[in-house]
Design a protein that fits this description.
Layout (H helix, E strand, L loop, with lengths): L2 H9 L2 H16 L6 H29 L3 H25 L6 H29 L2 E2 L2 H20 L14 H25 L25 H35 L5 H11 L1 H12 L3 H26 L13 H18 L3 E2 L1 H19 L2
Antiparallel strand pairs: 1-2
Subcellular location: Membrane
Pfam families: Na_Ca_ex (PF01699)
Keywords: Membrane, Transmembrane, Transmembrane helix
């Protein structure tokens, strides 16, 4: 089969049709009040777009190899997530002063505990012991910790402005530092020390690269890049479309509004979650950890600079500092994460501990 025939065959697949349908649902539902039936249809489109995004991300990752594939998915999702945050802040006014903080912190807890814990559990069930590279994973965890502390913890203690806010100069410093630190990590991950982020075998050796003859062709890869972007736009947009229903359900249940941020973050991060679990099932736990920690890092390192720029014309305060409960959960995540990473090997217990922290986060979001 020639290249053009291959591309035509790919276009007829569900992984191409579903993102287009999901994007169409986004266009038709944008800015409108949806009926319960319409919400159900959009939710189905959202689920299909998530599955399609995972498929296309895996095609791209197979073509470009680790760790580039996980980096592409993490950055793509985060860029669209940042656009969603900015859109909601512009539309929502002063009531959205904590939206960036709540969304970024939820992303950190979901990735560093939910995705990491689930990946370690799946990897340990598959091979009894999940093996990964301690050097690369430790560097990623250290970067996430620094970014989270600079952007989410320090605003609670600075005195330049009342409340958990940065002064304009402090916000500018945090934005520049976040962007530079994230850029430095990407350079280390993809160029200088790429070997630290490659999947390992059970005896600690790097896994062999895929056979070039089995790699997807350029046409198929280009199509997957385009459809990945379409699917991710649909995921985030459809999540926004169903968010009013989520908000009304949360309000009817008497739960705090911060739960909405958690639910939306869970929906947006579904592609990374499924991709990480599938990688762990193939005994590529390092790829799963690259996805999880890379997403947490990108969420902070890209969101804070954009929010700093948009704050110039946004009205109202910008609350970035975490409360006491969330700071305790963040500190616990960092300590447990360090103890998990240092040996370079994890069992079911480590995965269970991370999932317990994630469950505590969700429970305390519902019942603070």
């Amino acid at each position: 089969m020639n290249a053009s025939a291959t591309v035509r065959a790919l276009v007829t697949q569900w992984t191409v049709a579903v993102p287009v349908i999901a994007a169409l649902a986004l266009v038709l539902s944008w800015g409108r009040t949806l009926s319960p039936f319409a919400v159900a249809v959009v939710a189905l489109c959202l689920a299909g777009a998530v599955l399609a995004a995972v498929h296309h991300a895996e095609v791209i990752a197979h073509r470009v190899g680790d760790p580039y594939g996980s980096l592409i998915l993490a950055v793509a999702v985060t860029v669209i997530e940042v656009a969603l945050i900015v859109t909601l802040m512009v539309d929502g006014g002063p009531e959205t002063s904590t939206l960036a903080r709540d969304t970024v912190f939820a992303a950190v807890m979901i990735t560093c505990n939910g995705i990491v814990g689930l990946s370690l559990m799946v990897g340990a069930v598959r091979s009894r012991v999940a093996v990964f590279n301690a050097e690369g994973t430790g560097a990623a965890l250290a970067t996430v910790t620094t970014l989270a502390t600079l952007s989410l913890v320090l605003p609670t203690f600075t005195i330049g402005k009342p409340g958990p806010e940065f002064s304009p100069a402090q916000l500018g410093f945090a934005a520049v530092a976040s962007l530079l630190l994230y850029g430095l990590f990407v350079a280390v991950q993809t160029v200088r020390h790429r070997e630290y982020f490659l999947p390992l075998t059970q005896d600690g050796r790097p896994r062999e690269e895929a056979d070039p003859a089995a790699l997807p062709g350029r046409g198929a890869t280009t199509l997957s890049v385009v459809m990945l972007l379409v699917a991710l736009v649909a995921v985030v947009g459809d999540a926004k479309a169903v968010s009013p229903t989520v908000e009304s359900g949360v309000e009817a249940a008497g739960m705090p509004q911060s739960v909405v941020g958690v639910v939306i973050a869970l929906l947006v991060l579904l592609p990374e979650t499924l991709a990480a679990v599938r990688a762990a099932r193939r005994e590529r736990v390092q790829t799963s950890l690259n996805l999880a920690l890379g997403s947490a890092m990108a969420s902070i390192g890209l969101t804070i600079p954009v929010i700093a720029l948009t704050s110039i014309w946004l009205d109202g305060p910008l609350h970035l500092g975490l409360g006491a409960t969330h700071m305790v959960l963040l500190a616990l995540t960092v300590v447990v994460g360090a103890l998990t990473v240092v040996p370079g090997r994890a069992t079911l217990l480590q995965g269970g501990v991370h999932l317990a922290i994630f469950a505590a986060f969700v429970f305390l979001a519902i019942s603070p």
